[in-house]
Amino acid sequence: MADMNIETQIITPAVHARLSVLEARHEKEAAQLLRLESLANLMDAQFKIPLLPIPIGLDAIIGLIPVIGDTISIGASGVIVVGAQRLNLPKRYLLQMAGNMFIDWLIGLIPLVGDLFDIGWRGNIRNVRIAREQLERKWAKEREFALKD
Length: 149
Known about the structure:
The chain is mainly α. The protein is 72% helix and 0% strand. The two termini are 31 Å apart.
């Protein structure tokens, strides 16, 4: 027996067309976001090391090279922020992401402390989480708006 509380909505052809265009764009943005999430995972949590309770990424490994390692890894972090910019995230979130990137780089410059910080901070994963949250909010608002006739 069908649930009587489910509301059925009949949409017009114009609304259907708007939703189709919107869904195609959302799928493209989701694919871009997935690439950014894969990069963040590679940099922050790709590898499981025996005896370590949490996985580490290339950021922590490269960070073992004093000064140069953290400067190299900031490039990957920059790719994530630029990718978020291409997804049209509001500037305040891009600035927050840039701040996370700067903190990761600055503290990463401190020998040993910076390496431990990289493992716990996971700035790249933080940044893609910000991007995902903002995109999901934007997608919900756009769908809601597209459904209005």
